[in-house]
Specification:
globular, mainly alpha, 0% strand
Length: 89
């Protein structure tokens, strides 16, 4: 059932457009959705995202807005798989 919606209803390209939103809360939500998508995507879907330079486009979209500590913490959570606060010692 997941395979039926991964390409038809849920597309990585849509997330790349949504991350352009000026709200940091929306950007964090989209990053988390993109992480969930990438974890569940097939090899072909991952290859398509990489072939289309998806992560470069993501960086370009985020570069147009001021970064926040919360957004950085969201990326750290995606990379390390657990929440790490930057304001802690």
């Amino acid at each position: 059932m997941l395979e039926d919606v991964m390409d038809k209803l849920i597309q990585a390209d849509t997330f790349l457009v949504l991350v352009y939103h000026p709200s940091p809360a929306i950007q964090r939500g989209v990053i988390k959705l993109l992480d969930a998508y990438f974890n569940r995507a097939s090899k072909e879907q991952k290859d398509k995202l990489l072939k289309n330079r998806g992560f470069s486009l993501l960086a370009d979209q985020l570069n147009l807005h001021q970064g926040t500590q919360e957004l950085l913490e969201c990326f750290i959570e995606v990379f390390f798989g657990r929440r790490i606060g930057l304001d802690k010692e």
